[in-house]
Automatic annotation (TrEMBL), chain A:
Pfam families (UniProt xref): Ammonium_transp (PF00909)
Family: Belongs to the ammonia transporter channel (TC 1.A.11.2) family.
Subcellular localization: Cell membrane
The species this protein was found in: Streptomyces aquilus
Protein's name in the database: Ammonium transporter
PROSITE patterns membership: AMMONIUM_TRANSP
TrEMBL record, chain B:
PROSITE patterns: PII_GLNB_DOM, PII_GLNB_UMP
Subunit structure: Homotrimer.
Natural source organism: Streptomyces aquilus
UniProt-listed Pfam families: P-II (PF00543)
Biological classification of the source: Bacteria, Bacillati, Actinomycetota, Actinomycetes, Kitasatosporales
GO cellular component: cytosol
PANTHER family listed in its UniProt record: NITROGEN REGULATORY PROTEIN P-II (PTHR30115), NITROGEN REGULATORY PROTEIN P-II HOMOLOG (PTHR30115:SF11)
PTM-bearing positions, type O-UMP-tyrosine: 51
Domain of life of the organism encoding this protein: Bacteria
A GO molecular-function annotation: enzyme regulator activity
Protein name per Swiss-Prot or TrEMBL: Nitrogen regulatory protein P-II
UniProt-listed GO biological process terms: regulation of nitrogen utilization
Keywords: Nucleotide-binding, Phosphoprotein, Transcription, Transcription regulation
Length: 436, 112
């Protein structure tokens, strides 16, 4: 990323406007991806956890998040200042690199939104919606914002001082969401019936539609991170496509060998795993590197999703298995596959760079993973003590859609909620209408 | 009169309906059902986690006929629903005390 002011370039600005819209689309895409994977009784709650993150994170980001993440460093590369709180001092003429600062801030905002939404997959089916409404803004300020400053903020310690590479968000997006998801899964405990009942995805076409929208939006995520309409954006774009494909194929290969069937859920999950892993590395690795990064993530993540059954934490929709593991794979492999023509300097092990870059990547992964896990665990425990984070047993049994939102997603026939209005209730319905 | 209930594979429903029409049976009731016999269900796999599905989708066909027609109807259903593979279903018959046509109030065989 080049952050020095150079005057607005209309081509760069046009591309980043489009890329920002693409990244925002990823969150509704994620809502469908997650929504299809839960049971019928809590699909609306799952969609809502993503959707409401758009609103919550936007408000927090504009109030203070952007300034703390991307404002001038105030303490040892750990956090920015409040100079731009409430977007103070930023107008249509403010420039960051070759794009308007307000556009850069909005592009970065869309990253913060989807990262918060990603965590919801770890606590699907059993979190109090009210607690989620409090958790998201607090988490965004205490976890996402500092980590983003470390990685991309001016003077941030990871990029500027340590020299680790992260092009489009392996550290702030994938590893923080994965580690935070694990922390919250531990705070809330497993769903009722975990390991006894199989929690079958209720709508796989919805999962595939969501994965498709995620993939589409991911081009904005990764190629947009070049912050310009240029060759690096093109290379990141192609790497993104390549890794998604090998991730998909890798996951299917494991399923065929292990379970005897290549599944739809596996194809969607594998593509996402490959895309997760190429996120940090898409602007640093060769095309060969991208193919390997995607394949490695597809294969490793398809095994990692079973850890929850062995270790007993209930990460409902595999945020750990896909985002933490995929993010670690992609961030570390930069140390192997980085090429100078992409990075403009550092090279990976395979291209003669030695172990130095791999070491830097490892330090960054460990620091961000540990920070996100510990702080999120603390926030989760505090919220659980203060207002309760876990839905009641009755709510969980009945489903959060009906008990929290007073809605159900589907009409289950004449005996269910789609029952025709009975004769006795018609007069009261008309009465309500006439009063309105 | 007899109530004949048949639990068969869903995709055999059309054949059973045709067979009953050819016998001159005017009405029947079909409902979705699920269950298992000796074969039990099947296994589904989601992200490597196996899910044992015991209950297999079936349709339940119910038809009330006069005593004299009972055996012919049962034979027709069995012939139409049979695939020879496991899970073809069951047919049984029970005595019926009375039948009333709601629209006209007719009772007994006249109501069929």
């Amino acid at each position: 990323m080049t952050l020095a002011a150079q005057g607005i370039d209309t081509g760069d600005t046009a591309w980043l406007l489009a890329a920002t819209a693409l990244v925002l689309l990823m969150t509704p895409g994620l809502a469908l991806f997650y929504g299809g994977m839960v049971r019928t009784k809590s699909v609306l709650n799952m969609l809502m956890m993503s959707f409401v993150s758009i609103a919550l994170v936007t408000v927090v980001w504009l109030a203070a998040g952007y300034s703390l993440a991307f404002g001038d460093d105030t303490f040892q590369g750990l956090i920015g200042g409040l100079d731009h709180a409430g977007m103070k001092g930023l107008g249509p003429d403010s420039v960051q690199g070759t794009v308007p600062t307000l556009l850069f801030a909005t592009f970065q905002l869309t990253f913060a939104i989807i990262t918060a939404a990603l965590i919801s997959g770890a606590i699907a089916d059993r979190a109090k919606f009210g607690a989620w409404l409090v958790f998201v803004p607090v988490w965004a300020l205490l976890v996402y914002v500092p980590v983003t400053h470390w990685v991309w903020g001016p003077g941030g310690w990871i990029l500027d001082k340590l020299g680790a590479l992260d092009f489009a968000g392996g550290l702030p997006v994938e590893i923080t969401s994965g580690a935070s998801g694990l922390a919250l899964a531990l705070v809330l405990g497993p769903r009722l019936g975990f390991k006894k009942d199989a929690m079958r995805p209720h709508n796989l076409p919805m999962v595939v539609l969501g994965a498709g929208l995620l993939w589409f939006g991911w081009f904005g995520f990764n190629a947009g991170s070049a912050l310009g309409a240029n060759g690096l954006a093109a290379a990141a774009f192609l790497n993104t496509l390549a890794a998604g494909c090998t991730g998909l194929l890798g996951w299917l290969f494991v399923e065929q060998k292990r379970d005897g069937h290549p599944t739809t859920l596996g194809a969607a999950s594998g593509a996402v795993a490959g895309l997760v892993a190429i996120t940090p590395s898409c602007g640093s690795v060769s095309l060969l590197g991208a193919l390997v990064v995607g394949l490695a993530a597809g294969v490793l993540c398809s095994y990692a999703v079973s850890w929850k059954f062995k270790l007993g934490y209930d990460d409902s929709l595999d945020v750990v298995g896909v985002h933490l593991v995929g993010g670690v794979v992609g961030t570390l492999l930069i140390g192997v596959f980085a090429v100078e023509e992409m990075t403009g300097g550092p090279e990976g092990l395979l291209y003669g760079g030695g172990l130095a870059q791999l070491g830097r990547q490892l330090v960054a992964v460990a620091a961000v993973g540990a920070y996100a896990f510990l702080v999120t665990y603390g926030i989760g425990k505090l919220l659980d003590k203060a207002i309760g984070f876990r839905a009641s047993e009755e709510q969980e049994h009945t489903g959060l859609d009906l008990t929290v939102h007073a809605e159900t997603a589907y009409d289950h026939g004449v005996l269910g909620h789609g029952a025709p209005v009975s004769a006795s209730s018609v007069p009261s319905a008309q009465k309500v209408k006439s009063q309105a | 009169m007899k109530l004949i209930t048949a639990i068969v594979k869903p995709y055999r429903l059309d054949e059973v309906k045709t067979a009953l029409q050819e016998l001159g049976i005017h009405g029947l009731t079909v409902s979705e059902a699920s269950g298992y016999g000796r074969q039990r269900g099947h296994t589904e796999v989601y992200r490597g986690a196996e899910y044992q599905v015991d209950l297999v989708p079936k349709v339940r066909i119910e038809v009330v006929v006069e005593d004299a027609d009972s055996d012919a109807v049962i034979d027709a259903i069995v012939k139409a629903a049979q695939t020879g593979k496991i899970g073809d279903g069951k047919v049984w018959a029970l005595p019926v005390e009375t039948v009333v046509r709601v629209r006209t109030g007719e009772r007994g065989p006249d109501a069929l």
